């Protein structure tokens, strides 16, 4: 599998404001997310723990799903497993000034770990780099589902979109974790729906608090694979760590949210990220001259 990522990052950015095309951005199946985030990367329990242990609990956010047969919370019917709201945990996407496909700088929702200047991942190749990101778009190819690379080729503006997916042979092991095997490992079940009163309405309104996010992160970190059980001890440990995370990720998200205009509006030069992200401790990216 060969992919040309330079100048793209289409899987890390919600670039829909740059096109008039109707793009679903990985939204498949009958149970639709309650949030509007594009391409939210599902993390495993081990990855959730690793992010929190490294101080990045403030970079994580939950995703819940609508289901007509689910549990009712805040006026929404939420997909559930044995009456427990089902969710997974992904990486937050604040608005950033980015210019994919040689477009003019624009405020677009972008992964917290994406360098706006190089459009490279600050985690690539490191211990925290998510398995889903490393395998992408292999899982799509294994399932014969359209990839973000192909959507960019078909719908991105200008000539810079080019050919992104250079071949469509999925790598070995690019099989998504589905069904019962995902429970407690990538898909989690919240044990007490009543604790989510008010939280679900804030999630739908994109107004989650740090405490709201920590609730889901802690449940995911404390989940037992294959059973849906949640350890109280592990929950308390990770709830405190996630809620009080002191990392550059949370600080820069707040700064971007403060200074950003509306998504899709013209933005300043992406180089302003050097003062907002790099100067606050964000790891550097190598640039494309260093990539073979």
How is this structure best described in words?
By secondary structure, this protein is of the alpha+beta class. The chain has one domain. 25% of the residues lie in helices and 14% in strands. It is built from 9 helices and 10 strands. The chain has helices at 45-53, 131-135, 138-142, 148-155, 199-204, 210-221, 232-243, 248-259, 273-276; strands at residues 60-64, 66-73, 76-78, 80-81, 84-91, 95-98, 106-109, 114-115, 120-121, 188-189. Strands 1, 4, 5 and 10 form a 4-stranded antiparallel sheet that branches. A two-stranded antiparallel sheet has the order 2-3. Strands 6-7 form a two-stranded antiparallel sheet. Helix 6 (210-221) runs antiparallel to helix 7. The longest helix is centred in the C-terminal third of the chain and has 12 residues, at 210-221. The protein is globular. The model has no long low-confidence stretch (mean pLDDT 91).
Radius of gyration: 19 Å
Helix content: 25-40%
Mean pLDDT across all residues, rounded?
91
Main sheet record: 4 strands, antiparallel
Q: Which strand-content bin applies to the residues?
A: 5-15%
Topology, number of strands: 10
Order of helices and strands: HEEEEEEEEEHHHEHHHHH
Shape descriptor reads globular
* Low-confidence residue ranges: none
Q: How many structural units, i.e. domains?
A: 1
CA(first)-CA(last) distance: 15 Å
Q: Classify the secondary structure makeup into a structural class.
A: alpha+beta
Number of helices: 9
């Amino acid at each position: 599998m060969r992919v040309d990522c330079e100048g793209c990052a289409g899987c890390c950015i919600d670039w829909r404001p740059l096109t008039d095309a109707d793009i679903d951005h990985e939204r498949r199946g009958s149970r639709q997310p309650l949030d509007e985030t594009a391409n939210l990367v599902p993390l495993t329990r081990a990855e959730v723990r690793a992010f929190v242990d490294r101080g990045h609990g403030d970079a994580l956010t939950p995703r819940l799903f609508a289901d007509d047969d689910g549990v009712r919370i805040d006026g929404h019917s939420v997909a559930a497993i044995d009456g427990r709201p089902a969710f997974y945990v992904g990486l937050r996407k604040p608005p950033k000034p980015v210019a994919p496909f040689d477009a003019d700088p624009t405020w677009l929702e972008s992964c917290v770990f994406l360098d706006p200047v190089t459009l490279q991942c600050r985690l690539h190749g490191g211990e925290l780099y998510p398995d889903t990101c490393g395998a992408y778009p292999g899982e799509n190819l294994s399932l014969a589902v359209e990839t973000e690379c192909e959507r960019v080729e078909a719908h991105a503006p200008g000539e810079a979109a080019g050919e992104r997916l250079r071949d469509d042979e999925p790598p070995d092991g690019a099989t998504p974790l589905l069904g019962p095997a995902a429970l407690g490992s990538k898909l989690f079940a919240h044990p007490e729906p009543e604790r989510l009163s008010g939280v679900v309405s804030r999630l739908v309104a994109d107004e989650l608090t740090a405490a709201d996010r920590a609730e889901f992160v802690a449940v995911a970190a404390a989940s037992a694979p294959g059973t849906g059980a949640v350890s109280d001890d592990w929950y308390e440990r990770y709830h405190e760590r996630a809620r009080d995370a002191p990392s550059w990720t949370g600080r820069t998200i707040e700064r971007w949210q403060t200074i950003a205009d509306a998504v899709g509006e013209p933005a300043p030069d992406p180089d302003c990220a050097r003062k907002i992200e790099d100067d606050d401790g964000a790891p550097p990216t190598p640039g494309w001259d260093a990539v073979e």
